[in-house]
Amino acid sequence: MRELVASVCLAALTACGSVDTEQVDAPPDPIDAPVTDAAPIDAPACPIGTTAMCAGAELITCDGQGNITGTEACLLGCNATERRCNKLAPSNNLAAFYDEAEGATDLILVGAATIDTDSGTITDTGGARTPLTSTVTAGLPVGVFVIKVRSFTTGGLVTVQGTRALAIVSAGAVTIGHRLSVSARADITGPGALAIDANCRGGNAGAANANGHAGGGGGGFGTAGGRGGTGGSPTVQGGAAGGIAGVGELIPLRGGCPGGRSGPQPASYAAGGGGGAIQISSGTSIDIGAGGFVAANGGGGRGPSNPIFCIIDTPCGIGEGAGSGGAILLEAPSITVAATGGVVANGGGGSCGVTGSGSAGLFSAMPAPGQTCAGDTGSGGDGAAGATAAQPGGNGLNDDPVGGGGGGGLGRIRVNLPLGTTFTPAGVVSGASSAGALAVR
Questions:
Q1: Do the strands 327-331 and 68-73 form a parallel or antiparallel pair, or are they unpaired?
Q2: Which pTM does this prediction carry?
Q3: Under a CB-based contact definition with an 8 Å cutoff, are residues 382 and 391 in contact?
């Protein structure tokens, strides 16, 4: 543009006769101007004989003659010693499975899907899916069913069932577009829940007497459950609250604990089951999208579906303890949670009535409500959620007292990210949460 403006002005001045055109030196053609300060384009960039090297967080590949042949951004940093990008070292000794995942296929679940951790089957609306899988049991409190994939995507509800915990190990991105649940289903514990752990299982109430009975305690795990309400005359103590168990790192991987039983322990009633356990380890990212949830909620205390009518001047109602939330372990270079998504491991609500149940843990930070009762029967305790602790079952009253079941405690949520990275979810995260550094190798 500068040369163009200069030429226009020169032409104008010449036409006006105000300059001597022979005394004006035209600027050199920029196309023909010599390049005097550019570096030689064939200057070696790699040491001779080197095929790869690290430059900060980038891996540079070379041809051995000193020339760069390519670059790769290393999400987990560059290993200068071995001249490669770092790899994820998944928790719970799953590194070998990650190496297999790098050569595995993508797993895209279409519509509603079921993963059975005992049979090892994976089905969706299109039929059976057969990715690489393994089962680990040696030396663990519960077995772990491992799915090894290049990437993992869900679009519909994914229900996980069985007794073993679930681990998804993915070399690429994990995208959760709906609910992926290892939650308890009423009194059926979630996959990987540890029902035999006496430290966190809700306590059973004392034996009933002719004038009433007490409620079972709520299961604990990440936080304690709620005690069962008292009942009977003379007074019978409710079941003890389940205590805190496990560790924040979720090593080893395990789920929550069930609630305790009421004094009578009738066969048509049951305590709520503990939430299960899931680990998702990705070498790229975990994206929980709009409406997507990873859930390990506890079940509510359960009663029969058909009403049982009370007789006047007799104890009425049964208080079953609720289950605690389970375990969710997420680890990747990047983890996002959409505003309408979440990660939840909430406790269930205790029961108290002659029919129906306490609520299962909710997909929010709101407590699961215990069942409401009146008269001589105490209500079930609410489950733990967000910053709210599990509530005890209500104590029985008057001359035919029946205690309600205690609410279930929170489960555990663990998030591992690269050092210096902050977990900033837009959606809900409800559980006893902790964060750690992502391990690499």
A1: unpaired
A2: 0.88
A3: yes
DSSP string, 127-145: EEE--EEEEE-TT-SS-EE
- Report how far apart, in Å, the C-alpha atoms of 6 and of each of 21, 131, 143 are: 13, 70, 81
> SS3 breakdown of the chain: % helix, strand, coil, rounded to 5?
5, 25, 65
Q: Count the alpha carbons within 13 Å of 108 in the hemisphere toward its beta carbon.
A: 2
Give the burial class of 131: count Cβ atoms within 10 A of its Cβ; 0-12 exposed, 13-18 middle, 19 or more buried.
middle
- Given a cut of 70, the residues of the chain with pLDDT beneath it are 1-44
Q: Which burial class, exposed, middle or buried, applies to 311 when counting CB atoms under 10 A from its CB (0-12, 13-18, 19+)?
A: exposed
Distance CA 167, CA 179 (A): 16
**Whose CA is closest to 332, among 134, 165, 101, 127?**
101
Beta-strand pair 121-124/113-116: antiparallel
**Residue 88, CA atoms < 13 Å, CB-side half-sphere:** 31
- Stretch (H or E) spanning 8: helix 2-16
Of the candidates 400, 367, 364, the one whose C-alpha atom is nearest the C-alpha of residue 381 is 367
Residue 171 in contact with residue 284, Cβ under 8 Å?
yes
Kindly report, residue by residue over 173-209, the tens digit of the pLDDT.
999 999 999 999 999 999 999 999 999 999 999 999 9
68-73 sheet: strands from edge to edge? 52-55, 58-62, 68-73
What separation in angstroms does the CA of 206 have from each of 40, 65, 391? 88, 81, 19
Nearest to 320 by CA among 423, 222, 184: 184
Query: What pLDDT is attached to residue 44?
Result: 55
CA dist 389 and 383 (Å) reads 7
CB 249 within 8 A of CB 270: no
The CB-side HSE value for 353 (13 A sphere, CA atoms) comes to: 18
The CA distances from residue 51 to 45, 60, 63, 242, in Å, are 11, 8, 6, 58
Judge contact between 124 and 110, C-beta under 8 A: yes
Contact, 220 vs 243, CB < 8 A? yes
**How many other β-carbons are positioned within 10 Å of the β-carbon of residue 313?**
9
User: Which runs of E-coded beta strand occur in 22-178?
Assistant: 52-55, 58-62, 68-73, 78-79, 84-85, 106-109, 113-116, 121-124, 127-129, 132-136, 144-149, 151-154, 158-161, 165-170, 174-176
DSSP 51: S
DSSP per-residue letters across 282-312: ESS-EEE-TT-EEE-PPPPPB--SS--PPPT
